[in-house]
Design brief:
It is built from 10 helices and no strands. It folds into 2 domains: about 55 residues, Arc Repressor Mutant, subunit A, CATH 1.10.10; about 150 residues, Tetracycline Repressor, domain 2 (Orthogonal Bundle). The chain starts with a helix and ends in a 9-residue tail after the last helix. The N terminus and C terminus are likely disordered. The protein is an all-alpha fold. It is about 70% helix and about 0% strand.
């Protein structure tokens, strides 16, 4: 009976394994991490991991896929709530930076370790990430059609936004000189005035 009371619910154990995997992959890298190391982090036998995941690759896929789906859902929600596309674009940027604050380790794993996925699983994660890129491109197109921004090359502009945001995990520290809101305001200002969001009619 005591053993049954200590048994962790499958969904809770699965989340525990994923959380430990994020920490391990972030610390030593996906390739260097072993399932034995992971089992030690969680405090379970290596064989127990196979009750929840088929392989180390599937664990990495679940981490990357969960981040991608969460980002896509949040970005779609931010865009739908906005009254115009420029407001929507800014809301999307602010959401994505805010998401990063609470998921720094997951973002690092996504950016640096996704290459460890094989062709099949890698393609699945790229579908979601492609939808995120398309959402930014579509929103920028709406902005241009309404004369809210100057004309830009869509892919370049969208990748510039994502590049600004995704690189933050390398240097952003919650204890740094700028609060997250201040940092977000700075980035939005740079994008608005320096790259492509100026309203001065400049066609670039």
């Amino acid at each position: 009976m005591a053993q049954n009371r200590r048994r962790m619910r499958p969904d809770v154990r699965r989340k525990q394994i994923l959380a430990a995997s994020v920490r391990l992959f972030r610390t030593v890298g996906y390739e260097a991490a072993s399932l034995r190391d992971l089992a030690g982090e969680v405090g379970i036998n290596k064989a127990t991991i196979y009750h929840y995941f088929k392989s180390k690759e599937e664990i990495l896929f679940c981490i990357v896929d969960e981040v991608g789906e969460s980002l896509l859902g949040g970005l779609l929600s931010a865009r739908r709530k906005a009254s115009d596309p420029l407001e929507g674009l800014e809301a999307m940027i602010r959401f994505q930076i805010g998401y990063m604050e609470g998921h720094l380790e997951e973002i690092k794993v996504l950016v640096e370790e996704q290459k460890g996925l094989g062709t099949a699983l890698g393609e699945k994660t790229r579908v979601t990430q492609g939808k995120i890129l398309e959402l930014y491109e579509h929103t920028l197109t709406e902005c241009m059609e309404k004369g809210l921004v100057r004309k830009v090359h869509l892919a370049t502009a969208a990748f510039s936004i994502l590049g600004h945001i995704n690189w933050l995990y390398q240097w952003y520290k919650p204890t740094g000189a700028l609060s997250l809101k201040q940092l977000t305001d700075e980035i939005v200002s740079i994008l608005r005035n320096g790259l492509f969001l100026g309203k001065d009619g400049d066609e670039g």
